[in-house]
Specification:
This protein has eight helices and no strands. It has 224 residues and is mostly helical. Helix 1 runs antiparallel to helix 2 and helix 5 runs antiparallel to helix 6. The radius of gyration is 29 Å and the shape is elongated. It starts with a helix and ends in a 14-residue tail after the last helix. 22% of the residues are buried.
Length: 224
């Protein structure tokens, strides 16, 4: 259908160049431009569908309706310049297919991205060194943003998610699963203002040393 639209656009330009049917040529040029824009949107959704298929996030999309719509349009556009009705019917059909693919893509993406994120051992993040912890938290936010982008998923979102996921998974690989007591302690130490040494028990210090988190805790004297 896209190729046929280009042919019609070229034919309309030839008519306009010959100063014959200038109004008719302008009409077809305008309708063709609109149809091509709709086809670009459809093409983007088809690419996203195939990308999700490659990630095993979705099944192969059913694109038979595109062939049906293309055949109908080419048949009606075989002789002369198509009427506005023919263009409008084609655009409506293209939009219907695009909307269906977009809805399917978004549903598949949301489910897949949520499952991928759930598989990450995010509870290990507090056990990372300070600079690694900041990067991990930033990557976690990037994953959430890419997975829940308003307006629908794009190929850029998928690329960002997969690369960020790989980096975050690598940083958490091999780290120990921290006990609840350690997570609560680390959360308490990160609060501002932080606790004083008087507020930290010998058991707290022993727990930090057991998981080698004492290497990432600094003491600073306050007052005189």
């Amino acid at each position: 259908m896209y190729d046929k639209a280009v042919q019609l656009q070229n034919r309309a330009r030839l008519i306009a160049a010959g100063a014959v049917g200038e109004k008719e040529a302008a009409r077809v040029l305008g309708r063709t431009k609109e149809l091509r824009a709709s086809l670009v949107d459809l093409g983007n959704q088809v690419e996203i569908s195939r990308t999700l298929e490659g990630l095993e996030a979705a099944h192969r999309p059913d694109l038979s309706s595109i062939d049906t719509a293309r055949t109908a349009f080419m048949r009606k556009a075989a002789n002369g310049l198509p009427s506005d009705t023919v263009f409008n019917t084609a655009r409506k059909k293209v939009q219907e297919i695009t909307d269906r693919l977009k809805a399917d893509n978004n549903a598949a993406w949301s489910a897949w991205a949520a499952a991928q994120t759930a598989d990450l051992p995010l509870a290990r993040i507090p056990t990372l060194a300070a600079n690694e912890r900041v990067k991990a938290r930033s990557r976690q936010v990037e994953l959430q943003q890419a997975a829940n982008r308003k307006g629908g998923v794009t190929k850029a979102d998928i690329t960002l998610f997969t690369s960020t996921y790989a980096a975050l998974a690598e940083s958490l690989h091999g780290k120990s699963e921290p006990p609840r007591e350690l997570l609560d302690l680390l959360e308490r130490l990160e609060k501002r203002p932080g606790p004083t040494l008087h507020d930290v028990t010998d058991e707290d210090i022993a727990l930090l040393r057991e998981f080698e988190m004492d290497l990432h805790i600094t003491l600073q004297r306050t007052g005189t």
